[in-house]
Write a structure and sequence with these properties.
heterodimer, A: 285 residues, mainly beta, Immunoglobulin-like, five-stranded antiparallel β-sheet, four-stranded antiparallel β-sheet, B: 540 residues, alpha/beta, 7-stranded beta/alpha barrel, immunoglobulin/albumin-binding domain-like, 20 helices, globular
């Protein structure tokens, strides 16, 4: 099923509209999407006009002086005031946000933290409710009877005739599901097994208390959409708007990432080299 | 005599392909996906439904036929191209029977000849080119329950505007009514992807139930008393059935699953590569590149190279399918007996698969189903096949639970459709939705050329929303094609949007796009209005 989409013969009517997508839409806005219990994806656009306004209000060098951040608010309940900041680059235009706790509601705000600690919000996102990713602690039961045309929606009580079952059913099924999930992904050709990365595995069960942690490396950037970009000599596929990003495993040691961009007419080039060092210390307990 | 069964088994097959139709080309590679699925899965399924009905073997299947698939099945151009496809295959199969006389491949060559003759017979003599009538016939008989899917298999948890969620469901329900003469009772949410609360838009369209991956219910709240072995009601009253992982695992598992048996047909060794070039060339695409043509003469054989495979033996493979069906039934009987005692209620075991697994990927899978239906009908009394509608009629009282966000993709959530290979799509998709909603609100009563342009905008947006594009980018199969499709539909939307807002619609440009992307002939752009969505959310 490899494809070019084009079969050699001339089309009866040529495609008149094959061009790349707009780089921007001229609005300062941001959106937040749920990925899984611990990750969200955030994208934003900040127009030159908005940037100019910020510079007028807070000084022409505000973007150099301030730290660029995403402020992540936990908005699960109206009175919760919890938030934390993630350092970003405003020009990255998107970011994956890791949160410590699933099952909660979050919204984000892209902004600047001034040297005196003041926060200047630029653009806020929608709210996302992340799944909990585990069996619920709530064991109250409610029962309902529904007729085929939704005419009757009856909440009922009294489960005596309904059978045994118990809150433990969900727990034991969850264990089995997680086990099966970890040993197989959907089948070969059409499935997505190639995706499965090394999952964090829990240490053996005899120790009660435990900790696992790991980290990965995300590299991102942008250039002209038709440029040729390589990272460590390997060609990188650009998104239609000229951005690119890559996620690497990050083992202990040094990683060198030379990034080169060559203009489409091959007359101009730019180079950035990033060196990353990781050291992991484990107390061995 | 009644109620002897100890529990129920619901088989759910999800049949879907993205809308692929290219009138601008004489011959288009990706259209083959549809033709292959027709020959290997959709028509063979109808074949067994026909046979079992004529033998009075009772059976129940729940099957989604997604709106893109229904639109392709009833499209005149694809109908003609499909005829060309199977006639060519039949011609080759006939030549092959002669060429392979007195060789070890004679039986398998005869199998293909019979197969393509039967395809032609079903398609022409039984259904007169409209196989939806075939499916409808079995639905009307009460054997098959056809359910719908989001209009273009849109991935709903990654939509921000609820107008888009409503439009996916409403357009699908309207398309279903047109084809099957009544509204859909159930829906397959694309990729089983569920976002809590979205089911109110199902309810607004009279849809009673949908399906979830296992953890959608297991991680729901409050805790589900019966796990996945009884449906639950969302707070809105829409029912959710959840996937049994044991039966899924038995078929899907790469190591232990049935399809890996060494006597089954090898998918990757294909005549398109094996036959002498000049002989096979007329059956390849116009570019003359060797590709799979769907005729394969070898069995899996074992862990050996493709050139060391042994000849396929159709009779032997059929025996294996029968024994696997027996094994599957045995496991369901024991599972249901156990659950019945353990839960104190008749459990329902819901097994959900991509329909194309049967026949296309697992060639003998359709035989397996036929054996399974027959064995369940004649050989046991513990398990009763059922559709979700029938189940809810018998058991209208169920626990009320808010299911969890979930999907059946790798890792169980949204990552397959949201990762570094495809996350760039969403800002464009969301912008198009926002603009479509604005236009639907701004023009409540458009007519003439403006109405045509707005309707075409709705079609382009719908086509861009297909979860297939993001999926193909992730798995790297047909990545170029899927990227091109997403960009094309988005650009066509933008082009029309700018013409509409600039009050300068070019009829020629519009006409060209209408000719290319003709899905949903009856679409009404006002489905995207905020008023329509809000009424649905209020239950009106």
């Amino acid at each position: 099923m490899t494809s070019s989409g084009q079969m050699g013969s001339k089309p009866q009517q040529p495609d008149s509209d094959y061009k790349s997508l707009p780089e921007s839409y001229g609005n300062t806005e941001a959106a937040l999407l749920p990925r899984d219990p611990n990750w969200m994806f955030l994208y934003w656009e900040i127009t030159d006009n908005s940037k100019a306004n910020l510079a007028r209000e807070h000084g022409h060098d505000v973007f150099e002086k301030a730290r660029h951040v995403v402020r992540v608010y936990d908005v699960t309940s109206a009175d919760s005031k919890k938030y934390f900041d993630i350092p970003i680059m405003i020009d990255a235009r998107n970011w994956y946000i890791n949160v410590p706790e699933g099952g909660r509601a979050y919204c984000c705000e892209v902004g600047l933290v001034m040297p005196d600690g003041r926060f200047i919000g630029i653009v806020k996102t929608n709210t996302v409710n992340l799944p909990a990713g585990r069996v619920s602690d709530v064991t109250d039961e409610k029962w309902m009877s529904v007729s085929s045309d939704f005419d009757k929606l009856l909440q009922i009580s009294g489960v005596e005739y309904i059978g045994k079952g118990s809150g433990e059913v969900a727990k034991s099924l969850a264990q089995r599901w997680e086990m099966l999930r970890s040993v197989f992904s959907r089948a070969a050709s059409w499935g997505v097994s190639s995706l499965s990365s090394q999952a964090l595995s829990k240490p053996p069960a005899e120790k009660k208390f435990w900790l696992v942690a790991d980290c990965e490396l995300i590299l991102y950037g942008a250039t002209e959409p038709d440029a040729l970009v390589t990272v460590s000599g390997r060609k990188v596929n650009l998104n239609p708007d000229g951005t690119f990003s890559m996620r690497f495993a990050l083992p202990d040691g040094n990683v060198d990432l030379p990034i080169k961009a060559l203009s489409n007419d091959e007359t101009d080039s730019r180079q950035i080299e990033i060196k990353v060092t990781r050291t992991t210390k484990n107390d061995g307990k | 005599m009644e109620n002897k069964e100890k529990g129920y088994f619901a088989l759910v097959l999800h049949a879907h392909l993205p809308f692929i139709r290219h009138p601008e080309y004489e011959d288009f590679l990706e259209e083959d996906w549809y033709f292959e699925a027709m020959c290997e899965t959709y028509l063979p399924l109808l074949d067994i439904y026909e046979r079992m009905s004529s033998e009075n073997t009772d059976f129940r299947v729940t099957m989604s036929l997604t709106p893109p698939l229904c639109n392709m099945m009833s499209d005149e151009l694809l109908r003609e191209r499909f005829r060309r496809y199977y006639n060519q295959r039949l011609e080759l199969a006939e030549k092959e029977v002669v060429r392979n006389r007195n060789t070890q491949f004679h039986e398998v060559a005869k199998m293909y000849e019979r197969k393509f003759r039967r395809i032609r017979e079903l398609y022409e003599d039984y259904y007169h080119g409209n196989i939806l009538d075939g499916f409808k016939k079995f639905q009307d008989m009460g054997k098959l329950e056809i359910i719908t899917c989001g209009a273009t298999h849109g991935f709903l948890p990654l939509e921000i505007r609820k107008e888009a969620v409503y439009a996916q469901v409403k357009i699908a329900a309207d398309d279903y009514k047109l084809r099957f003469g009544r509204g859909p009772r159930g829906i397959w949410l694309a990729e089983c992807a569920y976002n809590p609360g979205d089911e109110v838009y199902l309810k607004a369209n009279g849809i009673r139930y949908f399906f979830l991956e296992t953890h959608g219910i297991i991680y729901g709240s409050p805790r589900p008393r019966y796990g996945v072995y009884a449906p639950v009601y969302c707070p809105s009253g829409v029912a959710a059935f959840s996937r049994d992982m044991e039966s899924a695992h038995q078929v899907w598992s790469a190591e232990m699953g049935y399809p890996g048996d060494h006597r089954y047909r090898e998918f990757y060794r294909d005549l398109g590569y094996d036959l002498e070039y000049e002989y096979i060339k007329p059956y390849l695409h116009q570019d003359g590149v060797r590709r799979n043509i769907g005729m394969k003469y070898y069995k899996i054989t074992g862990k050996v190279g493709l050139n060391e495979k042994a000849a396929y033996n159709p009779a032997e493979a059929r025996e294996v399918a029968a024994s696997h069906a027996g094994n599957f039934m045995f496991n369901r009987e024991r599972q249901i007996e156990h659950l019945n005692g353990f839960l104190g209620r008749k459990p329902i075991v819901v097994s959900m698969y991509d329909a194309e697994l049967y026949g296309h990927w697992w060639y003998e899978g359709v035989d397996f189903l036929e054996f399974l239906f027959k064995k369940l009908h004649y050989d046991q009394k513990t398990v009763k096949m059922i559709t979700p509608s029938e189940y809810l009629e018998r058991h209208p009282d169920n626990q009320m639970i808010q299911p969890s966000m979930s999907s059946w993709g790798d890792k169980g959530y949204n990552e397959v459709w949201l990762n570094a290979s495809n996350d760039w799509m969403y800002r464009h998709l969301h912008k198009a939705v926002e603009r479509m909603v604005d236009m639907a609100n701004r023009f409540p009563n458009a007519d003439g050329l403006l109405k045509r342009a707005l309707n075409q905008c709705a079609r382009e947006l719908m086509l861009g929303m297909s979860s297939d594009w993001a999926f193909l980018m992730t798995v790297g199969t047909a990545k170029t094609y899927s990227t091109k499709r997403f960009i094309e539909h988005t650009n066509r939307f933008i082009g029309l949007y700018e013409q509409i807002m600039g009050n300068r619609i070019e009829e020629k440009y519009l006409g060209d796009i209408e000719w290319r992307d003709n899905i949903f002939g009856h679409i009404d752009y006002r489905v995207f209005s905020t008023g329509a969505q809000e009424r649905a959310a209020r239950g009106g």
